[in-house]
Amino acid sequence: MKCPDCQRDLIPTDYRGIRIDECPGCRGRWFDRDGLREAKDRTDDDLRWLDFDPFGDEANVYDVRSEGRQCPRCSVTMGSLTYETSGVVIDKCGRCHGIWLNHGEFEKIVEHLERIVSSETAAQYLEEAGKQAARIPAGPVAGFRDFVAVLRLLEQRLAVEHPRIANAVQTLYGLSPFR
């Protein structure tokens, strides 16, 4: 595969157990189908519940003018969109569902998601825990992991926002036979 920017051969690389292809020149990265989500999940477990599907209908509102890059896997012109509200413009292949990121864009996406995690309130995490619990039957393993991640963040946020409630929960947990 060739880099869509500088046409160098991409080098297969292992990123936390995910195979990606990286350009030795510009250091851009190619993520095969679902690779970006998996890399994000393996970078920070607290981010695993924050899923943005660049190929879903909800992504259409983030479309921007295509930069005209060719997909390194199947050579079609890729579309471009902003990764949610991060300001990072990514290129996506509509045929093979791969994602091209320029150097440093993956880290910017992770930083954006970490800002979301740190700005959520306990009430928002409680609402999100309900949504994640409802998704468990659709994908039991991943859904349960996402649910547990949100519960962990809810617990942390409660400790900050409502220390008395957090102490009461800790006391109840200590008395529980299910711990």
List the helices and strands and how they pair.
Elements: E1 11-15, E2 18-22, E3 29-31, H1 35-43, E4 63-64, E5 79-82, E6 89-92, E7 99-101, H2 105-119, H3 122-135, H4 140-161, H5 163-175
Antiparallel strand pairs: 1-2, 2-3, 3-7, 4-5, 5-6, 6-7
Question: Would you give an account of this structure?
Answer:
The chain is α+β, with helices and mostly antiparallel strands. The protein folds into 2 domains: 11-119, no CATH class; 122-175. Helix content is 41%, strand content 15%. The chain has 5 helices and 7 strands; from the N terminus they run βββαββββαααα. The protein has helices at 35-43, 105-119, 122-135, 140-161, 163-175; strands spanning 11-15, 18-22, 29-31, 63-64, 79-82, 89-92, 99-101. Strands 1-2-3-7-6-5-4 form a 7-stranded antiparallel sheet. A hairpin with a 6-residue loop joins strand 5 (79-82) and strand 6.
Could you describe the largest sheet, including whether it forms a barrel? Answer: 7 strands, antiparallel
Distance between the termini: 51 Å
Structural class: alpha+beta
- Give unreliable regions as ranges: none
Please tally the helical runs, counting DSSP H or I stretches of 4 or more residues: 5
Residue-averaged pLDDT:
91
Shape: elongated
Instruction: Tell me the number of structural domains.
Output: 2
State the total count of DSSP E strands. 7
- Give the radius of gyration: 19 Å
Across the major sheet, the strand order is 1-2-3-7-6-5-4
The topology string of helices and strands comes to EEEHEEEEHHHH
- The fraction of residues in strands falls at 5-15%
Helicity level? 40-55%
